[in-house]
């Protein structure tokens, strides 16, 4: 579904990603682990079209999307849940979800938004209870749920998740990952960047290890979880 070949990207003159290649198959859950600063966020932002790569190619469903805008990628079914959630704080939960469907609402009011919102509420009942609250007043976990729900409103087929566990208690992390696994079981393809490597590897079929902007290992999630090198470097074991 997603194929990345030799991607080079960075900021200004600084190259952060050095020829990164990876794949996500349809319906697959893939994780990207690596230390702080390894380039996970840079990679996801480049895949979402927020950073222009200086070399390499990105294919989605066989089409070259390397030079497409973020909104054109969204239209094709590629959505990013950004690091730090970035919900619209003064807007209500419902309004945040509507913003996720904005591309579909404009220029003509599209069908199905209410139904999609109900789907998000079924997935995250806590959001339904707080539908008229300002997003900025939600807990960190609820904001993460809202950020995922907002992305789902765009009806993506591949979800890029940047550090969904960031700043959340272990119990809330379990809850978020249970929902992520459920989405995957229902057919959603996923690419998840995580510093919480053990949680990510346990939830993903395949994992890539990123270090200093390059892929240094990849393999089945279960294999990486039991690999001595990965355990020492990323699991603190
Ligand atoms: P984290 O978990 O902290 O987000 P990461 O693996 O996602 O880490 P990136 O955020 O992609 O890593 O950062 C990779 C490198 O790019 C780091 O050296 C970082 O300092 C640099 N970097 C990140 N954002 C910018 C920016 N806006 N301008 C310049 N350099 C940046």
TrEMBL record:
SMART domains: AAA. InterPro entries: AAA+_ATPase, ABC_transporter-like_ATP-bd, ABC_transporter-like_CS, BCAA_Transport_ATP-bd_LivF, P-loop_NTPase. GO terms for molecular function: ATP binding. Keywords: Amino-acid transport, ATP-binding, Nucleotide-binding, Transport. It comes from the Bacteria. The keyword ATP-binding applies. Pfam families: ABC_tran (PF00005). The keyword Transport applies. Residues 2-237 form the ABC transporter domain. Belongs to the ABC transporter superfamily. This is ABC transporter ATP-binding protein. It comes from Xanthobacter aminoxidans.
């Amino acid at each position: 579904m997603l194929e990345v070949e030799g991607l080079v990207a960075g900021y200004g003159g600084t190259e952060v990603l050095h020829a990164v290649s990876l794949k996500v198959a349809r319906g697959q859950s893939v994780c990207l682990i690596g230390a702080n600063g390894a380039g996970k966020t840079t990679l996801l932002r480049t895949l979402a079209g927020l950073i222009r790569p200086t070399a390499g190619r990105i294919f989605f469903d066989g089409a070259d999307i390397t030079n497409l805008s973020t909104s054109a990628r969204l239209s094709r079914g590629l959505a990013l849940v950004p690091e730090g959630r970035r919900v619209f704080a003064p807007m209500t939960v419902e309004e945040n979800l509507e913003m996720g469907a904005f591309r579909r609402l404009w220029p003509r009011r599209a069908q199905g938004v209410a139904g999609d919102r109900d789907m998000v509420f079924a997935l995250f009942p806590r959001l339904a209870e707080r539908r008229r609250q300002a997003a900025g007043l939600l807990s960190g976990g609820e904001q993460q749920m809202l950020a995922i729900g907002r992305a789902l409103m765009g009806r993506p087929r591949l979800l890029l998740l940047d550090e969904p566990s960031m700043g959340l208690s272990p119990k809330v992390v379990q809850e978020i990952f249970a929902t992520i696994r459920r989405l995957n079981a229902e057919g959603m393809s996923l690419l998840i960047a995580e510093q919480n490597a053990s949680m990510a590897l346990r939830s993903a079929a395949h994992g890539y290890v990123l270090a200093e902007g390059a892929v240094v290992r990849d393999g089945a999630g279960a294999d990486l979880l039991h690999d001595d090198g990965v355990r020492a470097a990323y699991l603190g074991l």
